[in-house]
Amino acid sequence: MFAIIGIVVVFGCVIAGYMMEHGNLKVLVQPAELIIIAGAGVGTLLISNPLYILKSIVGGLPGVINCSKYTKALYMDSLKMMYELFSRARRDGLVALESDTDEPEKSAIFSKYPAFLKDHHVLFFVCDTMRLVASNAVEAFELDQMVELDMDVHHNSSTLPVSALSTMADSLPGLGIVAAVLGVVITMGALGGPPEEIGRKVAAALVGTFLGILLCYGLVGPLAGNMAKSADDEHAYLYVLRVAMASFIKGTAPIMAVEVARRAIPGHVRPTFQELESFCRNKGEAAPAAAA
Predict the structure, then answer these.
(1) Do 28 and 207 touch, CB atoms closer than 8 A?
(2) CA–CA separation, 44 vs 258, rounded Å?
(3) In angstroms, rounded to a whole number, what is the distance separating the alpha carbons of residues 230 and 236?
């Protein structure tokens, strides 16, 4: 939502300032210049990136428009889920987790958190790790290294679309100059004609440079930056889950493992100790005031 508001503000303020100086809005409407710049920009994107990165870009754009899903509520639900998972492992043994990790859709714990089940990468991230914990085949230090490696690989894949969009944004000013030069070539061919016609062609050529710079710094570049922040938010979320699992593997009590993970939550969405403890121990209900 804020991305849409930002785009409206950018283009609205540019057009409003232009109109305040009594500019002719029709002059800025140059479909040919837009086709040259936007078409060539998309072409550079197709040339420099394989198909899977292009799909990632298309799939990541809806996330830019929507608000971030990594909210305080999501973190609290996730840590409560991990607390329930750790408590069951402590109560019934690690072997009891095999039914949850092998068929998470049928798990009594995971089924209570539909947002977790919908995110397939996070689902596999937790289930694969806890499956290794249940098998007791890997030491805690080695398992933590494996989880870190998984996170690094996924984060690198998440930043590839960002790099591709950033490269496209960097090319737009140059493509705007290309469109402007073509406009000057057309203008040179019209020399000797009416001054009004020459003026319109020069204005159209300058609009090409204007569009290239505006699309770079006012649209595509900010979209790439927003996608980069989304990738960082996902990495931070996975890091919190990693800290929780690593703490539990080392023998920490479930509630303390969740508390250690709470310290890793970014500050703007981090719950307090009392909030998280009450949320976990009271099955998601608010703790009574007297108990607090």
Answers:
(1) yes
(2) 46
(3) 10
Kindly report, residue by residue over 213-244, the tens digit of the pLDDT: 999 999 999 999 999 999 999 999 999 999 99
Tell me how crowded residue 63 is: count the other CB atoms within 10 A of its CB: 17
Helices marked H in the chain: 2-20, 25-28, 31-48, 51-65, 72-92, 98-102, 114-118, 120-135, 140-189, 195-215, 221-249, 254-263, 273-281
pLDDT per residue over 247-285, tens digit each? Answer: 998 888 999 999 999 999 999 999 999 999 899 887 544
Give yes or no for a contact between 224 and 57, defined as CB atoms under 8 angstroms apart: no
Q: CA 82 to CA 274: how far, in whole Å? A: 17
In this prediction the pTM is 0.86
Region at 283 (left for phi over 0; alpha for psi -120 to 50; beta for the rest):
left
